[in-house]
Specification:
Blueprint (H helix, E strand, L loop, with lengths): L11 H4 L4 H5 L6 E2 L10 H17 L1 H7 L9 H13 L14 E4 L1 H13 L5 E6 L3 H9 L3 E8 L2 E2 L1 H15 L5 E4 L13 H14 L2 E5 L24 E6 H4 L6 E4 L2 H15 L4 H40 L3 E3 L7 E6 L6 H9 L4 E2 L1 E2 L9 E3 L6 E3 L6 E5 L5 H19 L1
The protein binds pyridoxal-5'-phosphate.
The site of pyridoxal-5'-phosphate has 13 residues, from helix 6.
Length: about 425
């Protein structure tokens, strides 16, 4: 494909657009319910860590030279050991804390891990199963790499295992392929905010075992839980062969672009090979800062921070219940998002946002981008696969960034504008 300068650009540039969430970042609004920006970051802790490091670096120039240098692609061993300990102690991931630290690797954000895993597994035409709707940061790279994305129905508990089983069966018949990958965000999903029960986690694990499918468990919101946590699917993967488990510091620490993962060895080796060509390594200085955080401060930071997110969620849910017109919202027990679907199927949340919400200082993410731009969906009765259709009458509302007061005020305003439009 040639552009106006005559450069011959790759084909994907003509059908992949800038991420809708990224493009929304340009708007500076009073009522921000857009991207999953953490609003509660323990900035004092990070200021202390950096002040302490500045003294240490002045006293120890060898340490400074090492920390300001290149390092291993998969992460510095001292940082991986710290992460391994947290994964064992808190998340109960079945690795030996002391000896298996090299099962843990880091990437530049878990986004890079998602991309590199897709890059490692997918040849054009391969099939991937995701919930409907699903995190667009996974969907778009999957489509870009030529995957056939097959979306499966969800309810208020997330993806439905029986439907996954149906999707695999129909994928074999229709595409002649067993899917390569099942992608889920089990704890407070993005975008719906739903959490998979242990029963569903076990069922999904069993399905992937039976059909030899890699289960990609994206646990971005696992530490941001308002009630009891459900054990990770990875806890079922005793010999580290079935589940690629991803975590991120972005939601539980700060957006320093560090994701961490425990992947089956064969997948990990290829993902790190890929990462080696993508960025050579993750900045050592950033690993040092996070090493301090994860070894000394995270427990207190979560104890202080999570209840504040809960308060923001409650402010949003209450205002939605009071002021939104007819529709359904999800009822998350953690994470950053509530999902809302209008009772009016003609409502277009994208058009409404441009025309009404943004001029009124309000931002959310319209629902359509959480469906693949080109893809397939399982029909509701589970009997067929049809081209994927985005549900434009939906929206994702993020409660992580604005304070509770701003949320209450903004959601009232949004609810009244919506009611005027469709109520
Ligand atoms: C479900 C999910 N996975 C992955 C990411 C990427 O996170 P990061 O690259 O900041 O680690 C996000 C970011 O919002 C997310 O919501």
């Amino acid at each position: 494909m040639a552009n106006e300068r005559g450069y011959s650009l790759a084909t994907w540039t003509s059908f992949i657009e800038e991420s809708q969430i990224r493009s929304l970042l340009k708007y500076k609004v009073k009522y921000y319910f857009g991207g999953g920006k953490p609003g509660i970051i323990p900035t004092d802790i990070f200021a202390d860590i950096m002040a302490d490091l500045s003294i240490r670096y002045k006293e120890d120039s060898k340490l400074a030279l090492d920390d300001l240098n290149y390092g291993p692609t998969g992460g510095q061993p001292w940082f991986l050991k710290t992460l391994a300990k947290r994964l064992c102690d808190v998340r109960k991931i079945p690795i030996n804390c002391e000896d298996d630290w090299d099962h843990v690797s880091i990437t530049n954000g878990s986004q890079q891990a998602l991309y590199a895993i897709l890059d490692t597994l997918i040849d054009p035409g391969d099939v991937i199963i995701t919930p409907s709707p699903a995190y667009l940061g996974f969907l778009v790279p999957a489509v870009k790499l030529g995957a056939r994305v097959l979306t499966v129905n969800t309810d208020n508990e997330g993806i439905i295992p029986e439907q996954v089983e149906r999707a695999i069966h129909l994928s074999k018949i229709k595409f002649g392929k067993v899917p390569d990958l099942l992608y889920v965000v089990p704890d407070s999903d993005n975008p719906k905010g739903t959490t998979l029960s242990m029963k569903r986690r076990q069922a999904l694990f069993d399905i992937c075992e039976n059909h030899n499918i890699l289960l990609l468990e994206d646990s971005a919101y696992a530490e941001i839980q308002f009630k009891n946590t459900v054990k990770a699917i990875k806890t079922l993967d005793k010999d580290n062969t079935r589940v690629a488990y991803l975590g991120t510091s972005s939601k539980e620490a700060a957006v320093l672009r560090v994701g961490y993962s425990v992947m089956p060895d064969a997948v990990r080796d290829q993902v790190l090979k890929d990462k080696g060509y993508l960025d050579l390594c993750t900045a050592t200085l950033v690993q040092r800062i996070l090493d301090e955080y994860y070894s000394k401060y995270i427990d207190q930071a979560m104890k202080d921070g999570v209840p504040k997110y809960k308060e923001r969620y409650e402010a949003m849910a209450k205002a939605m219940d009071e002021f939104f017109p007819g529709g359904d919202r999800t009822d998350p027990t953690g994470g950053f998002f509530i999902w809302w679907k209008s009772d009016d199927p003609k409502f277009d949340s994208s058009e409404f946002m441009e025309r009404v919400a943004i001029p009124n200082d309000l931002l959310y993410v319209p629902g359509a981008p959480f469906y693949p731009i080109v893809g397939h969906q399982l029909t509701e009765d589970g009997n067929d696969i049809i081209p994927s259709v985005p549900e434009a009458d939906t929206m994702r509302l993020g409660f992580s960034y604005a304070t509770s007061d701003v949320i209450a005020e903004g959601i009232e305003k949004l609810g009244k504008l919506l009611t005027k439009e469709i109520g």
